[in-house]
Design a protein that fits this description.
Largest sheet: 6 strands, antiparallel
Oligomer: single chain
Protein name: Helix-turn-helix transcriptional regulator
Domain HTH cro/C1-type: 36-90
Order of helices and strands: EEHHHHHEEEEEEEEEH
Structural class: alpha+beta
Number of strands: 11
Keywords: DNA-binding
Strand order of the largest sheet: 3-4-5-11-6-9
Strand content: 25-35%
Distance between the termini: 52 Å
Radius of gyration: 24 Å
InterPro entries: Cro/C1-type_HTH, Cupin_2, Lambda_DNA-bd_dom_sf, RmlC-like_jellyroll, RmlC_Cupin_sf, TransReg_Diox_bact_type
Helix content: 25-40%
Length: 217
């Protein structure tokens, strides 16, 4: 039901239950409404499509997005599920620590940082000048998965018995249980790699020193 001008009310309301907030109600109210619409548009769904998935009327969803209907907790839970997200993500507020300071290894030309939203993931930017080792005994194999994109130059990925060229602006993804190593081909290259938790551990030695086979995550 629309609220009267000047009426104070909690942003998320269901009966007498109020979800604790860390920002002014009006700011969070607006943020949640914009987020619902942005997620709907990103999925390519019309108001009717999302309303059907959330079991709401199209007019109710339109009023929610446009600020003409109070945000009820039970409706937000349903909308979060329909949008393939969680209630926590739907109502989370912006944080001040947007900028981070990567760990820089000048000796090996690399920088590394963890993903705040998922501390198990880490990102490594690395400049490489040496080709990968061709001796299978020097390749790694460990649980996990890696993703990488070549920012400049040409990288050479040894994956089992295969040698794969990865050019600038090309990306690769592979399970790290396959013996692998990466290096430069025909000159220096720069890569950006993403490691899941297991792959990150696999690329760390107990003493924290970088191996010769590739970047440490």
């Amino acid at each position: 039901m629309p609220h009267r001008a000047g009426q104070q009310h909690p942003v998320l309301h269901m009966g007498h239950t109020v979800l604790p907030m860390t920002q002014e109600d009006g700011e969070l109210d607006s943020l949640v409404r914009k987020r619902i619409r942005a997620l709907r548009v990103a999925q390519g769904w019309s108001l009717e499509e999302l309303a059907t998935r959330a079991r709401l009327s199209q007019s109710s969803l339109s009023r929610i997005e446009n600020g003409r209907r109070r945000l009820a907790l039970d409706q937000l839970v349903t909308l979060a599920r329909a949008l393939d997200t969680t209630l926590d993500q739907l109502v989370e507020t912006a944080t001040d620590d947007v900028v981070t300071s990567p760990m820089i290894d000048s000796t090996h030309g690399s920088m590394r940082w963890t993903v705040k939203g998922d501390p198990g993931m880490s990102v490594v930017r690395q400049r490489m000048t040496e080709p990968p080792p061709e001796n299978p005994a020097r390749m790694r194999a460990h649980p996990g998965r890696e993703w990488l994109v070549v920012l400049s130059g040409t990288a050479s990925l040894m994956l089992g018995h295969r040698r794969i060229r990865i050019e600038t602006n090309q990306a690769a993804e592979f399970p790290t249980m396959m013996p692998h190593a990466i290096g430069a081909e025909g000159g220096p290259c720069e890569i950006l790699g993403i490691f899941d938790r297991d792959a990150r551990r696999g690329h760390q030695r107990e003493d924290g020193v970088r191996d010769a086979q590739g970047p440490r995550a």
